[in-house]
Amino acid sequence: MRENLESIRENFISELTKIKMEKDLDNLRVKFLGKKGVLTGVLKNLRNFDIEIRKQIGQESNKLKSFIEETISSKKIEVKKKLIDEKLKSTDFDITLPKDEYDIGSLHPVTIVQKEIEKIFTGIGFMIADGPELETDYFNFEALNVPKHHPARDMQDTYWMEDNRVLRTQTSAVQGRTMKKIKPPLRIIAPGRCFRNEALDACHENTFFQLEGMVIDKDISISNLIYAMRLLLTKVFGRDDIKVRLRPGYFPFVEPGFELDLNCLICGGKGCPTCKYSGWTELLPCGMIHPNVLIHGGIDPEEYTGFAFGLGLTRLAMMKYGISDIRALNSGDLRILKQIGVR
Ligand code: FA5
Fold first, then answer.
1. What is the CA radius of gyration of the chain?
2. Rounded distance between C-alpha atoms, residue 299 and residue 305, angstroms
3. Residues 6+ apart with CB under 8 A from 206
4. C-alpha 313 to ligand 1 mean position (Å)
5. Using CA positions, which residue lies closest to atom 31 of ligand 1?
6. With 0-12 CB in 10 A as exposed, 13-18 as middle and 19+ as buried, what is 126?
7. What is the model's pTM?
8. Which of 16, 34, 56, 322 is 20 to 30 A from 89 (CA-CA)?
9. What is the pLDDT of residues 198-247, one digit of tens each?
């Protein structure tokens, strides 16, 4: 019986040395330790022997069983390691390298400023309104007192679609849409993307953000307008010594109309490519809503007045974060965006 166990052990060792694959190790285990395995057969036969022999052979069989199990386990590790080594030799790709940590994104500088302004204005009772980027001629121009063939259409280089719709050139398009939906008193801001077929430079992109503001109520005056703009700028910059200048501006949808320029924060007013060497950045045109616009919106100009402004949101983000070239904001260059973005 003992010789029998010894030959099983030798047999096992000799078969083991030939094995190269993990699955063959599993088969070897079944061959020796499975239900009909060689060693199991020995144990089954034990019942024919007397008690003393059964004890001894039983103990030795169990030892052999443990030996077979442990040897197969360590051989499995060896086989796997060999497989990885072979793969590594045959490829440049190092499968053992730890993976990169996930790179967490951050908010875009324009989004950060947009959210700040939304917080300021919703805090004083404004709603956030929206409109489509692919806009009708009616809302982008006609409802804003810019009929067909009006020379003011040339102020904005427009992308026209074949079906006569436009890529919205200004968030002012949201004015008419909102008036048709909500009756005064109304207070809204409408941030969004605009498109113009511009010659690109440090302060002009073909795709940029504006933020429209509009208030319509009884007895709204220019002082309400100035208050709103002062609030916006002092809160966004966190200080009230920002230098601005207000000058007359022409837009067919406001009367009177103004241009509010910001002393260029890139050059401190000395003149640079960002402000086209003028020392001032055109930022916040505004004015009192023209009666024709109210009429288009179904609002009686005898009863109501209002103001509107069209903030250059992308330019404001540039001024706030000291970004001297607008093209950096749409370029997808993470080195710039990462310096500013908040997680
Ligand atoms: C308008 O778009 C008017 N809708 C603004 C308005 C609203 C006036 C309500 C009166 C009442 P303007 O074309 O100037 O105006 O654009 C407004 C602002 O958007 C500019 O001052 C500037 O800051 C920004 N802007 C305009 N064109 C570009 C551009 N190509 N790239 C980046 N910013 C631009």
1. 39
2. 9
3. 195, 196, 197, 198, 200
4. 9
5. 204
6. buried
7. 0.73
8. 16
9. 999 999 999 999 999 999 999 999 999 999 999 999 999 998 888 999 99
